[in-house]
Amino acid sequence: MFFLNRDLEETYTGTPLSEGKPLIETDPEYKAHCEKILQNYDKNDIRHNRSHYEEVLSNAHELLKIRTIKDLLLNKDMVTLTVIYHDSTLWKGGENHEETAAQSLKDDAPFLKKFFLNEEIDIMAQAIKEHGHGPDLPPSTNYGKILADADAVENLELLIEKTYERETDENDSTKEKFNKVFNNLKGRLGTGGSAKFHFKETLELKKLKEMRKMFDNNDMESFKSVYQKVIEVEIIESFILR
What we know:
Helix content: 55-70%
Number of domains: 2
CATH class of the largest domain: Mainly Alpha
Number of helices: 14
Shape: globular
Number of strands: 0
Strand content: under 5%
CATH superfamily of the largest domain: Hypothetical protein af1432
């Protein structure tokens, strides 16, 4: 088994977070390779397409700007590459896609060694392999934690869609469905909610702060405007449970 032990990151002394332009913007050969990997997202289901990749990348880069995480001196190019690969093999089958994506990166090691140390490639593979771990099973490296949290933070539209599918019943009225979704998400994302992440700083991501404010203020009007677009149903004022 090629994956790391849990002590590798502790002994790793490779390159820190670069202050210059990222590799993907400065090296044409590297950029072309990344684009080739990203084409796989066009084969994925709609919840794991390029838009998903872009959202996870945005979350990850935002996390890197938070002071306490920035102090970890993580390599931004490594974080970016883990995001590029993390769901790149999902189109082949969802089961064990974390392991197949990690293996894909390892298979590309002969090329990636032009840009990264062997230890860096191992760390990235481990992060990808473990990015599906929930908050009760932390990834073994900070790169894995960044990727897992960035992947777990979803936009409100997708949260509504998933919660609607999971929490409502076909026999529920329109009003009952709306209130079930709102109250479930409030219980998870409001202040003191049940949502957990590997880094406590993840709760400070802009989109989560905006959602937390909305739920804390019981701002059902803002929620309703998004809900109606996602569920394609008109919610009249009398349906809202106050």
